[in-house]
Amino acid sequence: MKIIHTISELQSELSVLKTQGKKVGLVPTMGALHEGHASLVKRCVKENDVAVVSVFVNPTQFNDKNDLLKYPRTPEADYKLLEANGCSIVFAPSVEEMYPEPDTRQFNFAPLDSVMEGAFRPGHFNGVAQIVSKLFDAVKPHRAYFGEKDFQQLAIIREMVKQLQFNIEIIGCPIVREEDGLALSSRNARLSAEEREIALKISQTLFKSRTFAADHSVSETIHFVENEIAAEKGLRLEYFKIVDGDTLQDLKDWADTDYAVGCITVFCGEVRLIDNIKYKGI
Ligand code: PAF
């Protein structure tokens, strides 16, 4: 496994491999890797000749400076996990390498980016699009892999690929959960043992809501989730929405779509956790 820090070195390495006809897959990450990332890397390794994993904590997608400062950074453990999972190239650039000048590009992914994370984290998806488009330009992969835990991010990246006409296949991979149901997240490392117990209520509520939804309306299901989360003192709900999985707009009636997803963001202490669940569809 090669660890590369500059775009020029990365591109000269990849151009040799591409002229040999090798298919290149990319897994963009911000490090602090866990088994969720490992599942993306494994799939990338399986489906491509060369698996590139980028490790870069992207400052432009953090609207909260404190969140950026506290974002876990574990490069040595990350490299071990990547090596063990068959990664060929780690791309770990500096901020100066990715942003030699401020990126002033403004994307418009309306209406996908005006709801949920887009509404609560202004500028977040613009920053995601800035870095992911730069990574796509640098690597020019055949395929790129993203987790479905960041459900809205995945929809926006698909839209960005359309708008910027990247010839890249975007592959969404299922959420990986702890045995007890908690969705894996780099932010889980910031939970105390007590908070970790409390956070479990998020996925448990989503699972219960799927049973509840079978004979209740969309709005009743939303209230069910809101009440369950409100009943747990250590949690503070930021939002829970049931949306059409393609448009990300609020769903009024189950019959209005064949792809319904519930998306939740909850603060557990200071840690902001997101999760989602499918009620209808793939
Ligand atoms: O999902 C993430 O970890 C980040 O948003 C991404 C896609 C690596 C861009 O920085």
From TrEMBL:
Annotated residues for binding of beta-alanine: Q61
Positions contributing to (R)-pantoate binding: Q61, Q153
Domain of life: Bacteria
Pfam families noted in UniProt: Pantoate_ligase
PANTHER family attached to this UniProt entry: CYTIDYLATE KINASE/PANTOATE-BETA-ALANINE LIGASE, PANTOATE--BETA-ALANINE LIGASE
InterPro entries: Pantoate_ligase (IPR003721), Pantoate_ligase_C (IPR042176), Rossmann-like_a/b/a_fold (IPR014729)
Subunit annotation: Homodimer.
Upper lineage: Bacteria, Pseudomonadati, Bacteroidota, Bacteroidia, Bacteroidales
Annotated CDD domains: PanC (cd00560)
Species of provenance: Bacteroides sedimenti
Annotated keywords: ATP-binding, Cytoplasm, Ligase, Nucleotide-binding, Pantothenate biosynthesis
Protein name, UniProt field: Pantothenate synthetase
Chief localisation class: cytoplasm
UniProt binding sites for ATP: 30-37, 147-150, 176, 184-187
Active-site residue numbers: H37
General remark: The reaction proceeds by a bi uni uni bi ping pong mechanism.
Compartments (UniProt record): Cytoplasm
